[in-house]
């Protein structure tokens, strides 16, 4: 599962997710396209909002590099 799918599963927009995390929408967009990755300090809150584990989020980014 990728980050976009996780976000869509909880029915929130990139802008809503960014606002919840105190970030810009462009940050979320770059995560979803693989141009950037979340800071480790953002992972717990991101996981909570998306209702997934931190490990699942990390896997989104490590699977792309394989």
What oligomeric state do the depicted chains represent?
Answer: single chain
Find the count of extended strands (DSSP E, 2+ residues).
Answer: 0
Q: Mind telling me the C-alpha Rg?
A: 11 Å
Helical fraction equals 55-70%
**Approximate strand percentage:** under 5%
Q: Any idea what the shape is?
A: globular
Instruction: Please give the count of helices.
Output: 5
| Mean pLDDT across all amino acids | 94
Would you tell me the structural class of the helices and strands? Answer: mainly alpha
SSE topology string: HHHHH
Low-confidence stretches: none
Give the helix/strand layout:
Layout: H1 3-9, H2 14-21, H3 25-33, H4 43-50, H5 54-64
Helix pairs in contact: 2-3, 4-5
Notes on the protein architecture:
The chain is mainly α and 66 residues long. The protein contains five helices and no strands. The protein has helices spanning 3-9, 14-21, 25-33, 43-50, 54-64. Helix 2 crosses helix 3 and helix 4 (43-50) crosses helix 5. The mean pLDDT is 94.
Pick out its properties.
mainly alpha; 66 residues
Tell me briefly what this model is.
With 66 residues, the chain is mainly alpha-helical. It has helices at 3-9, 14-21, 25-33, 43-50, 54-64.
């Amino acid at each position: 599962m990728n980050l976009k799918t996780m976000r869509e599963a909880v029915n929130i927009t990139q802008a809503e997710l960014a606002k919840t995390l105190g970030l810009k929408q462009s940050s979320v967009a770059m995560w979803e396209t693989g141009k950037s990755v979340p800071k480790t300090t953002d992972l717990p809150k991101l996981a909570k909002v998306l209702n997934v584990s931190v490990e699942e989020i990390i896997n989104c980014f490590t699977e792309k590099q394989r």
